[in-house]
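Recall the central idea of this unit: under ordinary conditions, the amino acid sequence of a chain determines the structure it adopts. In this exercise we apply that idea directly, starting from the sequence alone.
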Amino acid sequence: MRLFAAIHVPETVKDKMLDVSEKISMRGITLVKREALHVTVAFFGDADESSVKDAISDAIEGMKAFDVSISKIGFFDPKQMKIIYAGISEGRENISKINEKIVRSMNIDDRKFIPHVTLGRIKADVDTELLKRKIAPHMNEEFGKFEVEGISLMNSRLTENGPTYERLWEGKF
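Accordingly, the structure predicted from this sequence is:
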């Protein structure tokens, strides 16, 4: 199983992200589907489900619900422009703290963790100048604010139609 920890995004926030995604859609971009929009907290890959549950439980022990605001559009690796994402403005510190505890507990490498929601993946043949012009009016978009009350353990299955996700368990604060 390809496991990861995630925060689910409410449908009203997904609506706004998908509205912007449609406006920036173009040849060479694979947009993330509604059901796949989430905030990744940590990626485990092929890991033992029980160990991952324990790591998530330990990381969120004693935490209280917190607000998350999703806003602004950016690119990972701006020179190569591979991923289009919506950033986390409020709640970043809490998400990063959970990530740090999980990474330490599971002894995994999560490099430079940046809380975000992936909106799309860019293929090599995209017209980057056109993409920048299409995204420019939405760079400071406010997608919404919501309360996070727990972290979910997710299973990712890769298919020819893109990944599918299944919630296996949720640790509540």
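Residues 92-106 form the longest helix (15 residues).
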